[in-house]
Amino acid sequence: MTKNILFITDIPEDTGSFIGRYYPLAYELSQLNYNITILMPRHDEKDYIVNDNFKIKCIGKPLFKKLENSRSYYSTSKTIMIMIKYIYNYLKFYLLNKVDILYLGKPLPASGLSSILIKPFVKKLIIDCDDLETVTNNISNGLQFKVLSFFEKNLPKFANKITTHTSYLYNQLKLSGVNENNIITLPNGIDTNRFTLDSTNSSQKTYFTILYFGDINLDSGHSVDIIIKSLEYLKDMDIKFKLIILGDGKDFEKLKDLAININVNSYIEWKGRVDPKDINQFLISSDVTIDPVSKHLGNLSRFPLKIIESAYCQIPVITSDYGDRKSILKDSGIYVEIDNPKDMAKKIFKLSNESEKDKIYRQNRLSEIAQQYTWKNLTQEFIKQI
Asked: Are 124 and 158 in contact (CB under 8 A)?
């Protein structure tokens, strides 16, 4: 019997959790004849039909406005009005449609309150906890923090099942009183429909290409400043290189100023946020992806999508042994001291001189590891556990 699964989330389509988690999971479920609807805010405020079994319906505009390389957030009163519209549209859809399983993408206020109201009437409520929301979200005042904290701590206790992706978040859920038997480990995964493996011919390349893609927000643990500072040391080594930065966020201009002040901006190409479909071309044209790590709770709880997408494209990853990163990449990863730009520069230089034998071994290991994280495989495991 076909099940009707309703995903609801307060985040829009250009966020990492949607791109790397909710959309590909929903898509793979639709390929297995589940009827899928995602209710979510969208920047264009339009509905979208993916296939006969999968529809995305807009519940309103997002809680922030996109600027050229950053975001602008609404006042508290305006945010509340937008969330009231979300709640109305969540409940309206439920009343007019059959829902067997409700999947809440993040324990956030509007979708969280709606899920509690809907829960008595569905067979199963699943809540996904893939972040420390009070750490990684933009919070402008104490009231917002208290509300967000309340939902993050208490909503999972109402769920039949909870999905999460790191050992840190798993343990935090247990400590908060969630029954361990209800917790499902669901890693971030690779949407293979967005990637090809045709790489640029290395003999044609002039520069060793370093890639960062993701948010540019130091407060949430995206420590792009470490990469920029590493270039101070790298420029004095015997290597021709360039750094490509894909992404936007509140610290975009701040980090450009840093690069100018330490005389490394000429080595950097600032591309801004790009369409997720275009990440593939940047990846296969690069020599290494950097996942910069500082001692920040956001990094402890994070499962960086960039490291497994890079692995799928057989691109080496430089990161640090913090959180679950080493358990994910194992011996294929290159690990630097946390918050140490000088060590990062040394590891980049060493990788640029890697022997062909070591390069082939690393590529094979990356490919093996990536296969564990394709959404086709993860979805099959997800179905077994729900």
From this structure: no
